Amino acid sequence: MIKSKNKLAFLLLATFLLAAAAPCPAAVLPPPQPKQGPGGADYGYGRVIKTAHGLGEQAYYIFEPDEPKPQSAPLIVFLHGWGGTNPDYYSSWIEHLVKKGKIVIFPVYQSWGSLLSSNKYTLNCLQAIRAAIELLQSSKEHVKPNLEQLAIVGHSVGGILALNISAKAQTLGLPVPKAIMSVQPKRALMLPVEDLSTIPPSTLLLVVAGDQDSLSADESVSIFRRLGHIPSENKDFVTLVSDDYGAPPLIADHFAPTGNPSGSRLMLGLSRARTDALDYYGIWKLFDALTDAAFWGQNRDWALGNTALQRYMGKWSNGRPVKELVITDHPRPRSRSRSGLLRFIPRLGGRERQSEGSESQDGS
Fold first, then answer.
1. For a pLDDT cut of 90, what percent of the chain falls above it?
2. Distance between CA atoms of residues 185 and 170, nearest Å
3. What is the pLDDT of residues 301-331, one digit of tens each?
4. All structural domains of the chain with their residue ranges
5. Which of 2, 57, 212, 222 has the fewest CB atoms lying closer than 10 Å?
6. Which residues of 195-221 are buried (b: 16+ CB within 10 A; e: fewer)?
7. Residue pLDDT, tens place only, 10-43
8. Burial category of 283 from C-beta neighbours within 10 Å (exposed 0-12, middle 13-18, buried 19 and up)
9. Which residue in 223, 104, 97, 205 sits closest to 156, CA to CA?
10. What is the CATH number of domain 27-332+339-343?
């Protein structure tokens, strides 16, 4: 009996040791940044020069490509979310844009003492943009902006401001953006939305939502519906889709556009900090391709049209595709009876567009 017990103990110990020594299954990792193409790492410039200008709510930052220094470059106006006055909140995305060969103007437009004075945000942005353009044009130290190649992108409150500025640009004698991307647009208290019908119908436009964004989902839909004068071939409503198949998971919440190379936490701990496939294959890819299409007539099918290239989000390390973007021209607001992704998309389903002549039940 004692020998049997010893034998059993030996077998159990051997089994335990073999299990401990066996290699653990490899973790399934999200896709890295692609080597080239929209959202990719094929950078033409090795350095970013950052300078700060102005004071208070009219302050702004300029980011310029260097090594080598170009004579001129396309111009991007980058508008942060509420309270995100430190460009480090978005430094990974800004660095990506600049190393791709673009000048970035980052208006501060608010101070901690005036966070609730949102009725001034549009004017503050316009003043900062005008000052930045004048500086870039007049100083030999700076890269000259190509004002025929201007695009504007904004996140959250900045997504509303991107549209406001585009609507007022021509009236105020500023260059009119060729492309606009409004990411998770969210109004601040007392922030008016301008008459968006003044945005030229030729503008290429994306409104981007996140399936886990509880702050701006319905507002993203409402804003897109105000842009009915822009033909469907020039605009799309895009939903980023969360995917927790591997680790770390890809979570398309309201802070998905934020991130910095150090991975440090910013914005009162709310910044997502890291960059991932939601950036490379989602937000960065879409805006890169949108500007390529607007400036040079290239890569349109990466940004518009509900194509496979537009929807594609890369593959997990074991080859499984990451959940695709969902594209529509007829987004619906969230409803209490529907949850998750289904609250963002037409009832006909994810990939299929409604026919161009059809209307949603509420007449949109």
1. 74
2. 22
3. 999 999 999 999 999 999 999 999 999 999 9
4. 27-332+339-343
5. 2
6. ebeebeeebbbbbbbbbbbebbbbbbb
7. 544 554 444 444 444 579 999 999 999 999 999 9
8. buried
9. 223
10. 3.40.50.1820
